[in-house]
Amino acid sequence: xxxxxxxxxxxxxxxxxxxxxxxxxxxxxxxxxxxxxxxxxxxxxxxxxxxxxxxxxxxxxxxxxxxxxxxxxxxxxxxxxxxxxxxxxxxxxxxxxxxxxxxxxxxxxxxxxxxxxxxxxxxxxxxxxxxxxxxxxxxxxxxxxxxxxxxxxxxxxxxxxxxxxxxxxxxxxxxxxxxxxxxxxxxxxxxxxxxxxxxxxxxxxxxxxxxxxxxxxxxxxxxxxxxxxxxxxxxxxxxxxxxxxxxxxxxxxxxxxxxxxxxxxxxxxxxxxxxxxxxxxxxxxxxxxxxxxxxxxxxxxxxxxxxxxxxxxxxxxxxxxxxxxxxxx
Length: 329
Fold this sequence. Notes:
CATH class of the largest domain: Alpha Beta
Distance between the termini: 32 Å
Number of domains: 2
Mean pLDDT: 97
Number of helices: 9
Helix content: 25-40%
CATH architecture of the largest domain: 3-Layer(aba) Sandwich
Number of strands: 17
Strand content: 25-35%
Largest sheet: 8 strands, mixed
Order of helices and strands: HHEEEEEHEEEHEEEHEHEEHEHEEH
Structural class: alpha+beta
């Protein structure tokens, strides 16, 4: 499964331009689903029939990035953040555009580090003039962080673990599920980083009886970190709440019971800031019961997000077991 994770995390796909990652995922899952379509917002919606109710899993394909807003006379690019981009983690990083153009993020001279803001930063694509730069990149082009996957054994590091590792979990569950108890709608959503946009459209279209978002969550296990009772290596997390959702209690109890019945280690997650596709799913139409399974992840929204491989494997086990267990509400 590590090779699958490497494939999906290294693929280009900033929010609003998910074509490459969508095509990659579609090619992988095609033999394992009964139907597949792409909606008007670019969500990939796959159906694996099992009968009874409609169970929707949502894992977002998009990643944070940058959008070119200006090209100066010396060929340097100014940019706007696409999603939760921090100047502290972007400085010195490389970004790549859809056509393969690569640049380095630099900054103006600062009196102090605290003065570093995104509007004082630029992208250097190696051009010397405005004309040279505009031959490679246009206003509105989207760039994503360029960083390779690294296998540290029990821990894996890459950009875009948020939430491509969740996409990998959903792919692997689709490949290995034996007897789905419901019609499984596996939705690989777009524009989550811009406000859960893809999931809202997909949930309205699918109109599931139950929706479960798959994503990553922050941890509280690094030195002097935020106080949070989630750690790497202790299993996937069953969410209770975040800024976008209070998970439906019956769904949370269902997910916990499935984990217990299948001897799958899990953690309970209370995330103080941040949201997931479940927030959009839950508020669609007349309201949809919703929950979240999260993969614990250090250094979220950086070029080097870290997960524990055992958590990923247990995440696959939990998603597969949920697929094979009837939800009675």
